[in-house]
Amino acid sequence: MFLLPKPIPDFLGRHFEASKVEVTPSGYVTNDSFISWAKFFVEEIKEVRGNENLWCLLVLDGHHSHTFNAQVLEILNAANILAVCLPSHSTSALQVHDVSIFGPFKKFLTSAIGQYILLQDPVIQLKQLPSILEDPWEKANSNYNIKAGFKAVGLWPLNLNWIRENEHKIKLLVFSKKEEQFERLRQKSQVDSSFSQLVRSLNHLDLAVQLPKVVQLTPRNRLARTLSLRLDHASNFPSNHRLLNSQ
């Protein structure tokens, strides 16, 4: 389902035939838009399920529109769909799309955007997005990637030993301070630097306020590439910048 901040006539065109469009004031999901999605989901999975008396498992993240939306839960429960919410801040390790879909999707989308800019128009308008997104989305959501994602997070085949086998991921999720996360990653990667030294070295970069809010390091920065750190909340780092790992 696509969410738009304003109506766009024939937005999908001939693309994403099985999808629908909802308009919300901000373009982000709301309680009402998720209710609409729940009704849409119930209808869409009927053919896949076959027998509607069999229960279906729906895994959700902890967004308030999911977890504090009684009407959605009623709609799902009436359709024999059990909604399970993932623990807070755990989607990077437990959500199927985060684990096996979004990475390939970003790669395919980057290529598609480059081709569009090179061959058609340097300016991409909102109404062009479905035509650009469709092929990368289909490629990323391959049977192989979907099955690999479910296996990686232990959902299917059901792996009751997943937590024991992935303690390193769980420990990173529960660290309360960036310093603790950095230290564990430093030890794992055998990088000879401390968190404070890294922050001080980053401060030497000329990250003036006129630069974009998102500062992306070059692939040559071995430390950031190896550690995959986001230091946007580091006390010695400019608060109006985010430091992203460059893959």
Shape: globular
Strand content: 5-15%
What's the count of strands?
6
CA distance, first residue to last residue = 29 Å
Which secondary-structure class do the elements indicate? mainly alpha
Instruction: List segments where confidence is low: pLDDT < 50 over at least 5 consecutive residues.
Output: 203-247
Helical content class: 40-55%
Q: What is the count of DSSP helices, taking H or I runs of 4+ residues?
A: 13
Query: What is the spatial order of strands in the main beta sheet?
Result: 1-2
Please trace the helix and strand order, writing H or E for each element. Answer: EEHHEHHEHHHHHHHHEHE
Instruction: Give the biggest beta sheet.
Output: 2 strands, parallel
- What would you report as the Rg, rounded to the nearest angstrom? 21 Å
Rounded mean pLDDT is 79
Number of domains: 3
Question: How would you summarize the topology of this molecule?
Answer:
Elements: E1 2-4, E2 21-23, H1 31-44, H2 46-49, E3 56-60, H3 64-67, H4 70-78, E4 81-85, H5 91-94, H6 96-119, H7 129-140, H8 143-152, H9 162-165, H10 167-174, H11 178-189, H12 195-203, E5 214-216, H13 222-227, E6 242-244
Parallel strand pairs: 1-2, 3-4, 5-6
Helix pairs in contact: 1-4, 6-7, 6-8
